[in-house]
Amino acid sequence: MRKLVFLLCFATSSFSLAQLPALLDKPTVTAFAQEISGDLAERNLEYISTQHRMRGSRAFHTAAEHIAAQLKSYGLTDVQIEQLPADGKIFYGTQRSRPAWDAEFAELWIMKDGKPSQRIASWDAIPLTLAQDSESGEADAELVDVGAGTAEKDYAEKDVHGKFVLVSSQPGQVAELALKHGAAAIVSYAQNQRTAWSGDNPDQIRWGHLDTFAKQKTFAFMISMRQARAFQQQLARGEKVQLHGTVRAGQHPGTYDIVNASIPGSDPKLLREEIVFTCHLDHPRPGANDNASGCVATLEIARTISKLIREKKIAPPLRTVRFLWPMEVEGSMAMLNAHPEWAKNQVKANIHLDMVGGGPETKAVFHVTRGPASLPSFINDVAEDIAEFVNEQTYKFAATGEAEFPLIARDGGKEPLRADFARFSMGSDHEVFADSSWSIPTIYLNDWPDRNIHTNFDIAALIDPTKLKRAAFIAGTSGYVLANIGATRPANLFDVLRERSLLRAEDTLHRGLQLNSAEQLNLCTFQLAYERQIADSVSKISNQNRVSPGDPGSQVKNLVGLFPVITCLFPVITQPITAPFGDAALIFRRNPNVKGPMTVFGYDYFEGKYGNERSDKIRLLKYEGLWGSGGEYAYEVLNFADGKRTAQEIRDSVSAEYGPVPVDVVIDYLKAAESIGVLERVK
Fold first, then answer.
1. For 493-502, what is each residue's pLDDT tens digit?
2. How far apart are CA 380 and CA 351, in angstroms?
3. Which domain holds residue 191?
4. Does residue 211 sit in the same domain as residue 290?
């Protein structure tokens, strides 16, 4: 077994010794490497991170206007801020539009002897201290600690009527129950997302959320763990904690403001086709890595391509290159649903940047992430090949002080990039584009983990301009390659695909060792089909027919001897494979009138239509697999429901991707999705 792993690694090594990315010539690499400026990107980031960029808010619009103004100053002529209505009633596919939310004032004071003693929360100083979707209100009341605050037992024998409740949970998880018991408002010390560094910094203040669509409104303040512990110590001593909170904030009908710019294609036959760069402009102040970093990297890509074209250092792209700065997920949902013909016929690929600038203090690992297994595409191999080049060059520079393309910023670090090549993961706009409603292949660049995400410590000072430069280089050159694949394919494209497929074969072997013989065979069968579809995917951009037996791509499609060898290393399955029967033979397809993932931003379409109590009983949503869990399985089950696969085949596909799951668990979810009109049964 280990010998095969060695042979696979040896087979790939001959492809990775190239000094340049396989699909870029040296003048193009040089032009991008010299022009992209991480320092300029950081200066834009410093401004954007001063804005508390909540959806539809005045500060979001200020940030959008800055992006648009910079684009125009960089020479882009097709620049606009598109405004799509958002009032809480309009749906964009599965996304229920969320009304705009603004705050004017919010403060929380400790009171002593009836007078303000210490201000512990201020909207003006740290907007994160006010939970999103808080409503105007005022309260002068005692503080009562109710622990998590999410269960009836947390309120047992405690009088919270007319009082502030101190909770460890997110305000949105607590509000309904706390208000039922008469609480006046909420004070939360909810901690950050779970990573190795969670809880290390007692001064972090977490971004808090109330339910956008809650029937009963309230307000909530967010405090640090240090402050919460101080309160708990006072309460444990039998002392009273008196607080006074004032909030002037609320929702109102607004718009999704989406900055939209493009560099037109030069080929009359291809210019209507588009390579679309996205990032998300929203998030709280400072929100430097999440996601001012992706926004300014995208802005820098637009500036660089535009300038290099004007200076004739690169040729204009054959296809149009578009740049969008929407709100996370909901903005992309609005764009794709509001422009169905554009989404269906023009967008050929999406490159999404979400958190790409974290310096060493953030503890971030940079990922070049593939699209889902339901949407095999060669575009991910293109990005990985370019990122591998950046890895090699930046490591060489860090280790020796010499490299032709070190890709460092004047004020940035010199560490090697060490980009990780990751399988599909959810959590940002890329999952919207890749959803089977549109099936747009995606490249997703992202940092994870990040010790400061969604806290007051996600600051500009911790952003590395060298990292911004490298992320912009990988994304920008990947997009430029895709924009220029025309009626013919680059001769060495299939060399890239072959290298990456060999590396995936090694990964398939390692994953297969965790499975029984039947699941090993399923995994290998699925992976072979996946590789063939990657080769076929080239035709979706190159406008050529699928690869023929004499085409170099057939070497990738057939992977001569490779997967059969791997399959033979696994124990031989003895039981016969039978055709699915009963419910396992059912076939479903997506309802074309319901577009988008089930879980979007601030709204769960599945729960909204199926009901919370019934949703809690859907086993797939809580299923834990070897390499994935609940929401990931559900996302891909819907993507694989293409009107051709049986329920058994859908189960086999998601099992190959995330680990074995019982077929009846998948069938229950398919039927539930059918009952709310997301799926249709094929007769």
1. 888 998 899 8
2. 10
3. 100-252
4. no
